[in-house]
Amino acid sequence: MTIAALERGVPGQIYNVVDDFPVSQRQFLEFFSELLRRPMPLHASLEEEAQRKRGLTHKRVSNRRLRGDLGYILVYPDFIAGYATEIVRHAR
Q1: Is residue 14 within 8 Å of residue 70, measured between CB atoms?
Q2: Phi/psi of residue 68, each to 5°?
Q3: 3-state secondary structure of 49
Q4: I need a labelling partner for 18 at 20 to 30 A (CA). Which of 5, 25, 33, 79 fits?
Q5: What is the mean pLDDT of residues 75-84?
Q6: For residues 86 and 90, what is the distance between their CA atoms, to the nearest angstrom?
Q7: Cα separation of 56 and 47, whole Å?
Q8: 33 or 60, which is more confident?
Q9: Percent with pLDDT over 70 in the chain
Q10: CA nearest neighbour of 40 among 50, 52, 32
Q11: What is the pLDDT of residues 43-55, one digit of tens each?
Q12: Where along the chain do its domains lie?
């Protein structure tokens, strides 16, 4: 991706390296909880969340420029496909 950005990117442009389907933190944790057959982690209180660097915000970013400007195609279009493949591979 770095080489593609250097060769075809717009100078000063930001290219987010994220998959095609943004999910909430809860969706992410639910996936792993089910896949690994483990309980969901305990949630922090709103007060604890507010103290964290990210605070209570939830940011969604797009890889539109990565795909459009650079023509980059992800091997795994979403985190589920990528992680599931790796977990199965390492379980052997």
Answers
A1: no
A2: -75, -55
A3: helix
A4: 33
A5: 89
A6: 6
A7: 9
A8: 33
A9: 86
A10: 32
A11: 766 677 667 666 5
A12: 2-38+60-91
